[in-house]
Amino acid sequence: MTVKRCALGAWDFVRKLYAEFNKDLGPMVSASMSFYALLSLVPLLLVAVAVVAQVLHSTETAAYSKVFEYVGRFSPSLAGDPLKSVVRGRGIAGGLGLLALLWSGTQFFVSLETAVNIAWNVRERRSFVKQRLVALGMALGAGALLLVNLGVTTLTEVVRGFHRIRILNVILQAQWTWTAAGFLITLALTTAMFTMVYKFLPNRHVKWRDALVGAGVAAVLWELAKDAFSWYVPRFAGYNRVYGSLGGVIILMVWIYYSSMVTVIGAEVSALRAQIRQRS
User: How many other C-beta atoms lie within 10 A of the C-beta of residue 219?
Assistant: First the structure.
């Protein structure tokens, strides 16, 4: 009886989530986010490359490799050749140039704030200055996650080379160990990123547990879709035959649009869970 009740409750939640997503024009909001995401992508990547080069005291080439290795974990299409060539062609700006790039890159987070406010039925918007400052904070938070990921990756390589304990050596040499570790680390970072978005971007107070539930759903959907997308594109997607040289851009846009939809769904989950909790 308990299992049946849980199943009915889950189905009722999914049905309400679908209704809320359509009521809040989720597909259209996701398309708007995708547009601003594409405009903000190159400036944010340039800032990331410059910061990584400074923090790790590395060359531009090494910084490019680190950044695109990182973004490739979150998206199978962001590390493609078209995007790499655009970013490399722009070079790394310095000083005020970096600030200008970071400022222009915050437009995506402004559109993201609008999307989560719609999910929470928040009508009052922040002032222009406050809105930009919050978006800037989100961009810096995403950059901090990048540095954390690079640090964890370095630590993993150090641990992997540790051979003094025989039992530990057997475990560390097993391929499944690193596959599982890589998946869990990426999932944790993705969940942290979504939690930060759902907690701080809405122009209202959001409880941590509500933000975390929505973030967990969005992170799982994103990770599953990322693996499916990586498998599907090289085998069945015929974008190059239809769009020619624009095929890579189209693939990137499809992935950004799906990612935007996942983000909106996660925000709807957080808001719906809060509504149910308040009624009970």
Answer: 22
